[in-house]
Write a structure and sequence with these properties.
The chain is of the alpha+beta class. The chain has helices at about 1-40, 65-140, 145-175, 190-200, 200-205, 225-240, 300-310, and strands at about 45-50, 60, 185-190, 210-215, 220, 245-255, 260-265, 315-320, 325-330. It has a 5-stranded mixed β-sheet with strand order 4-6-7-9-8, with helices on one face. It binds adenosine-5'-diphosphate.
């Protein structure tokens, strides 16, 4: 599809350039032949008439019109050659430029296709499982209420997964919408970090995880809800990829212009080869090192990255497999301000 569009675009470039070039060539031909004829008219031969005085009268002879015709032909030939050169050069440059112009569009369309394929795959899995269970249940003529309830419970689990997935997709599309203008307010670092800790309090407790805090507080300009969401995602991952009873360190350091927030876990870690991709949509590293299959859609970190970018910040990760990971978020401070306290 893009190869065809590239040719069409090159064709249009060529058409425009050759149209302009032909108009100029006709103009140049007209001008140069007119000037030539004028020059030649002025350069008539002056022949002295034998037996007449040296100062005249004279005989005048025109230049051979055949020579004029030859010169005109040569001009036409040269103009055609120049136009041929322009045609070849513009075809080459036009093809190259069309390729460069279409490349980002091609990448965007490919990404959209990949996104649709990945999203469809995530939707299909729970749907297939629900369909199979319902079909088996419908064929079972001796189904009792207890089995029916079990089936409904299992279906509800899948519906919850689908709902969670659609929530993720909606959140992602909201943050990746370039025209989105999040309302910004003055927020304290401790506010959104505490919000995230509170939100995940029940799973922290369930997994007996200890969160050690070392927070230097500062005020930044941001959106409290999305910043809380950002650290909920990072904290959720830190808990999810840690063993039971693991320890997580949440630390913030304030310097002249930034606040540096670090979330360190001692979980399963990330392989160096996976690190460049974990912020991509739907990317999930192989978690076979984990004792049990860990649920997820590979969307959390891409949402986290979008939130950080909206706040003009930076996110990075350092990780050693089987030793743990440290996610670092750097956010600009509201103004130059110092440390306002510890919590
Ligand atoms: P999800 O966790 O739902 O799979 P994410 O986008 O949040 O999706 O994370 C992408 C991948 O990055 C995960 O699948 C996991 O492999 C890896 N990852 C993220 N955070 C951690 C962490 N704290 N420890 C180990 N691996 C992590």
């Amino acid at each position: 599809m893009f190869a065809k569009t590239r040719f069409i675009l090159t064709g249009w470039y060529l058409l425009i350039i050759m149209f302009i070039s032909c108009i100029f060539s006709v103009g140049i031909y007209r001008l140069s032949t007119a000037e030539l004829e004028r020059g030649l008219r002025m350069q008539r031969y002056r022949i002295e008439i034998p037996g007449m005085p040296a100062n005249g009268p004279f005989l005048y002879r025109q230049i051979d019109p055949q020579i004029l015709g030859e010169i005109k032909e040569r001009i036409i030939f040269r103009l055609i050659a120049v136009n041929g050169g322009i045609f070849l050069l513009s075809a080459f440059l036009g093809y190259f430029l069309a390729g460069r112009l279409l490349h980002p569009v091609e990448e965007m369309v490919d990404e959209q296709k990949r996104f649709i394929a990945d999203a469809s795959h995530e939707i299909r899995t729970p749907l297939t499982s629900m369909k199979t269970e319902i079909e088996v249940a419908l064929r079972d003529k001796k189904m009792v209420l207890k089995d029916a309830k079990k089936l409904l419970e299992s279906n509800l689990e899948e519906v919850n997964k689908l709902q969670e997935f659609s929530n993720y997709l909606l959140t992602l599309s909201r943050y990746q919408n370039t025209s989105l203008k999040l309302p910004m307010e003055n927020v304290y670092v401790s506010e959104f970090l505490e919000n995230a800790i509170q939100k995940l309090a029940s799973i922290t407790k369930k997994k007996k995880i200890i969160i050690q805090k070392d927070i230097s507080n500062a005020e930044i300009e941001g959106n409290l809800l999305s910043l809380s969401e950002l650290f909920s995602i990072l904290l959720d991952n830190a808990i999810k990829y840690s063993q039971e009873g693991g320890k997580i360190i949440l630390k913030s350091i304030v310097n002249r212009n930034h606040v540096i927030i670090q979330l360190k876990d001692k979980g399963i870690g990330i392989k160096a080869s996976d690190i460049p991709y974990i912020f991509n949509r739907f990317y999930r590293a192989d978690t076979s090192r984990a004792k049990t299959q860990i649920d997820g859609y590979g969307l959390g970190l891409s949402i986290a990255k979008s939130i950080v970018e909206i706040h003009n910040g930076k996110i990075s990760v350092e990780s050693i497999p089987n030793e743990g990971s440290t996610f670092t978020v750097i956010l600009p401070l509201k103004q130059s301000q110092g440390i306002t306290g510890h919590s």
